Protein backbone atom coordinates (compact mmCIF):
# COMPACT_ATOMS: atom_id res chain seq x y z
CA UNK A 1 0.00 0.00 0.00
CA UNK A 2 1.21 3.47 -0.84
CA UNK A 3 0.80 6.56 1.28
CA UNK A 4 0.56 10.08 -0.05
CA UNK A 5 0.08 13.65 1.10
CA UNK A 6 -2.62 16.03 -0.04
CA UNK A 7 -2.72 19.66 1.05
CA UNK A 8 -5.98 21.50 0.67
CA UNK A 9 -4.71 25.03 0.23
CA UNK A 10 -6.16 28.21 1.75
CA UNK A 11 -8.52 28.76 -1.19
CA UNK A 12 -10.04 25.30 -0.64
CA UNK A 13 -10.62 26.02 3.04
CA UNK A 14 -11.98 29.52 2.43
CA UNK A 15 -14.40 28.13 -0.16
CA UNK A 16 -15.62 25.36 2.16
CA UNK A 17 -14.37 22.53 -0.07
CA UNK A 18 -12.49 20.34 2.43
CA UNK A 19 -15.36 17.87 2.86
CA UNK A 20 -16.00 17.72 -0.89
CA UNK A 21 -12.33 17.06 -1.66
CA UNK A 22 -11.72 14.51 1.11
CA UNK A 23 -15.02 12.85 0.22
CA UNK A 24 -13.90 12.31 -3.37
CA UNK A 25 -10.83 10.43 -2.16
CA UNK A 26 -12.85 8.36 0.29
CA UNK A 27 -15.48 7.51 -2.34
CA UNK A 28 -12.66 6.36 -4.63
CA UNK A 29 -11.67 3.87 -1.91
CA UNK A 30 -8.57 5.56 -0.51
CA UNK A 31 -8.19 5.31 3.24
CA UNK A 32 -7.88 8.47 5.33
CA UNK A 33 -5.00 7.87 7.77
CA UNK A 34 -4.23 11.44 8.87
CA UNK A 35 -5.95 14.80 8.88
CA UNK A 36 -4.94 18.07 10.46
CA UNK A 37 -5.67 21.74 9.97
CA UNK A 38 -2.94 24.28 10.56
CA UNK A 39 -1.59 27.72 9.85
CA UNK A 40 1.54 27.12 7.78
CA UNK A 41 4.70 28.82 8.96
CA UNK A 42 6.90 30.51 6.39
CA UNK A 43 9.71 28.06 7.30
CA UNK A 44 7.49 25.02 6.61
CA UNK A 45 6.25 26.55 3.35
CA UNK A 46 9.80 27.26 2.19
CA UNK A 47 10.89 23.73 3.08
CA UNK A 48 7.86 22.20 1.35
CA UNK A 49 8.44 24.18 -1.86
CA UNK A 50 12.27 24.01 -1.70
CA UNK A 51 12.39 22.17 -5.03
CA UNK A 52 11.04 25.37 -6.66
CA UNK A 53 13.39 27.81 -4.88
CA UNK A 54 14.84 30.30 -7.34
CA UNK A 55 11.99 29.93 -9.86
CA UNK A 56 9.96 33.03 -10.67
CA UNK A 57 6.78 31.60 -9.11
CA UNK A 58 8.40 30.42 -5.83
CA UNK A 59 7.65 33.57 -3.78
CA UNK A 60 4.00 33.39 -4.83
CA UNK A 61 3.74 29.73 -3.78
CA UNK A 62 5.13 30.48 -0.34
CA UNK A 63 2.98 33.60 0.10
CA UNK A 64 -0.18 31.80 -0.95
CA UNK A 65 0.15 28.68 1.21
CA UNK A 66 0.87 30.86 4.26
CA UNK A 67 -2.09 33.19 3.55
CA UNK A 68 -4.58 31.10 5.55
CA UNK A 69 -5.17 27.71 7.13
CA UNK A 70 -4.40 24.51 5.23
CA UNK A 71 -5.82 21.00 5.67
CA UNK A 72 -3.10 18.35 5.51
CA UNK A 73 -4.46 14.96 4.50
CA UNK A 74 -2.66 11.61 4.54
CA UNK A 75 -4.15 8.91 2.34
CA UNK A 76 -3.35 5.25 1.81
CA UNK A 77 -4.24 2.76 -0.89
CA UNK A 78 -2.96 0.75 -3.81
CA UNK A 79 -1.16 3.06 -6.27
CA UNK A 80 -2.37 5.98 -4.11
CA UNK A 81 0.09 8.54 -5.49
CA UNK A 82 -0.84 8.12 -9.16
CA UNK A 83 -4.53 7.73 -8.31
CA UNK A 84 -4.59 10.97 -6.33
CA UNK A 85 -2.64 12.85 -9.02
CA UNK A 86 -5.15 11.75 -11.69
CA UNK A 87 -8.04 12.81 -9.46
CA UNK A 88 -6.45 16.21 -8.76
CA UNK A 89 -5.93 17.11 -12.44
CA UNK A 90 -3.53 19.46 -14.22
CA UNK A 91 -1.79 22.19 -12.23
CA UNK A 92 -3.60 24.95 -14.10
CA UNK A 93 -7.32 24.63 -13.32
CA UNK A 94 -8.36 26.10 -16.67
CA UNK A 95 -6.48 23.21 -18.36
CA UNK A 96 -7.66 20.46 -15.99
CA UNK A 97 -10.08 17.86 -17.30
CA UNK A 98 -13.70 17.95 -16.16
CA UNK A 99 -14.20 15.33 -13.46
CA UNK A 100 -10.92 16.20 -11.73
CA UNK A 101 -10.84 18.27 -8.55
CA UNK A 102 -9.15 21.20 -10.26
CA UNK A 103 -11.25 20.80 -13.41
CA UNK A 104 -14.51 20.87 -11.48
CA UNK A 105 -13.68 23.25 -8.64
CA UNK A 106 -10.68 25.40 -9.64
CA UNK A 107 -10.50 28.39 -11.92
CA UNK A 108 -7.09 30.08 -11.96
CA UNK A 109 -3.32 29.56 -11.62
CA UNK A 110 -1.95 29.56 -8.08
CA UNK A 111 -5.49 29.32 -6.71
CA UNK A 112 -5.54 25.64 -7.66
CA UNK A 113 -7.00 24.31 -4.38
CA UNK A 114 -4.72 21.39 -3.73
CA UNK A 115 -1.22 19.93 -3.63
CA UNK A 116 -0.53 16.21 -4.08
CA UNK A 117 2.77 14.35 -3.76
CA UNK A 118 4.21 13.29 -7.10
CA UNK A 119 6.40 10.26 -6.29
CA UNK A 120 7.03 7.65 -3.58
CA UNK A 121 10.11 9.49 -2.27
CA UNK A 122 8.37 12.85 -2.32
CA UNK A 123 5.33 11.45 -0.54
CA UNK A 124 7.48 9.95 2.22
CA UNK A 125 9.40 13.18 2.82
CA UNK A 126 6.28 15.37 2.61
CA UNK A 127 4.31 13.14 4.99
CA UNK A 128 7.19 13.38 7.48
CA UNK A 129 7.23 17.16 7.03
CA UNK A 130 3.51 17.63 7.73
CA UNK A 131 2.76 14.78 10.19
CA UNK A 132 4.49 13.15 13.15
CA UNK A 133 4.62 9.36 12.79
CA UNK A 134 2.12 8.93 15.65
CA UNK A 135 -0.36 11.20 13.84
CA UNK A 136 -0.84 8.61 11.07
CA UNK A 137 -3.31 5.93 12.09
CA UNK A 138 -3.09 2.32 10.89
CA UNK A 139 -6.44 0.57 10.96
CA UNK A 140 -8.34 -2.03 9.02
CA UNK A 141 -11.62 -1.51 7.23
CA UNK A 142 -14.08 -4.29 6.49
CA UNK A 143 -14.73 -2.66 3.11
CA UNK A 144 -11.09 -3.04 1.98
CA UNK A 145 -11.73 -6.56 0.67
CA UNK A 146 -14.36 -5.07 -1.62
CA UNK A 147 -12.06 -2.28 -2.85
CA UNK A 148 -8.70 -3.99 -3.29
CA UNK A 149 -8.69 -6.70 -5.95
CA UNK A 150 -7.16 -10.00 -4.96
CA UNK A 151 -6.51 -13.06 -7.07
CA UNK A 152 -9.54 -15.36 -6.93
CA UNK A 153 -9.01 -18.68 -5.19
CA UNK A 154 -8.53 -21.55 -7.63
CA UNK A 155 -9.67 -25.08 -6.98
Characterize the structure shown.
- The chain is an alpha+beta fold.
- Helix content is 39%, strand content 17%.
- The chain has one domain: Alpha-Beta Plaits (2-Layer Sandwich).
- The protein contains eight helices and four strands; from the N terminus they run βααβααβααβαα.
- The longest helix is centred in the first third of the chain and has 11 residues, at 18-28.
- The two termini are 28 Å apart.
Cα-to-Cα separation, first versus last residue: 28 Å
What percent of the residues sit in helical stretches (DSSP H or I)? 25-40%
Q: Judging by the overall fold, what is the CATH architecture?
A: 2-Layer Sandwich
Structural class: alpha+beta
**Strand adjacency order, main sheet:** 2-3-1-4
- Largest sheet data: 4 strands, antiparallel
Give the low-pLDDT segments: none
Beta-strand proportion: 15-25%
* Beta strand count: 4
The CATH superfamily is Nucleoside diphosphate kinase-like domain
Average predicted local confidence, pLDDT: 94
Which class in CATH terms? Alpha Beta
Could you tell me the radius of gyration in angstroms? 16 Å
Compressed to H and E, one letter per element, the order equals EHHEHHEHHEHH
Shape: globular
CATH topology: Alpha-Beta Plaits
Total number of distinct structural domains: 1
Give the oligomeric state.
Answer: single chain
Total number of helices: 8
Amino acid sequence: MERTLVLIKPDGLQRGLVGEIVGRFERKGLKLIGLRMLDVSRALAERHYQVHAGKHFYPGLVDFITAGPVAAVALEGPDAIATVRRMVGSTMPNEAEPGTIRGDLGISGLRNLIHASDAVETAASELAMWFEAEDLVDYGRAIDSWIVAEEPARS
